[in-house]
Design goal:
Number of strands: 7
Strand order of the largest sheet: 1-2-3-4
Number of helices: 5
Shape: globular
Structural class: alpha+beta
Oligomer: single chain
Helix content: 25-40%
CATH topology: Aminopeptidase
């Protein structure tokens, strides 16, 4: 597996971040782990919000405090994916389908094992927050994400039925802090 690193968003990554979002759009992909980057016209405004939310500043009441990263492949400095580590998740968040980690891989880099490696790296990062267990919620149809979670020792905990009838599977990974 190629070496991947987590990189906190900076203004200098604007062009690369926009290319990542453009690729997701061109493949009609979901924006998992992007922390709403796709909704911002002004990239710098998004970076400022990411910084604030990581500090718990201007965080909406029902949101979990979190940190967002680009996942960068070291050999070519390319953004391979994005992750959102929500270290402030509450039981109420989990009931609404929010887990500790949201992640995504750019479409042209899928099916290469990056998802499994990204989750492994995120689990290492979670140790900084002393979380005894990591909750991951996934749509029941997302077979590749389920396999990724299970490869990282995720155990199915429960099914969560959303108000709209959509079913999420809640997995738990016990941290080895």
């Amino acid at each position: 597996m190629e070496e991947l690193v987590l990189e906190f968003p900076t203004y200098a990554r604007e062009k690369d971040a926009k290319a990542y979002i453009k690729e997701l759009r061109s493949f009609n992909s979901q924006f998992n782990g992007c922390d709403d980057l796709e909704k911002f016209e002004d990239y710098r405004e998004w970076v400022d919000r990411v910084v604030d939310w990581n500090k718990g500043v201007n965080l909406p009441d029902d949101y979990a405090q979190a940190i967002t990263y680009f996942v960068v492949r070291v050999k070519d400095n390319k953004i391979i994916g994005m992750v959102n580590i929500r270290y402030g998740v509450t039981e109420e968040n989990i009931k609404r389908g929010v887990g500790h980690i949201g992640s995504g891989v750019r479409p042209t880099e899928r099916r290469k094992g990056y998802g499994t490696e990204i989750l492994r790296i995120c689990l290492e990062e979670c140790k900084k927050y002393n979380l005894p267990e990591i909750h991951l919620n996934v749509k029941k149809e997302n077979v590749s994400a389920i396999r990724t979670i299970e490869k990282n020792n995720g155990e199915l905990n429960k099914k969560i039925v959303m108000d709209n009838g959509e079913i999420f599977l809640n997995y738990i990974i016990i941290a080895d802090n």
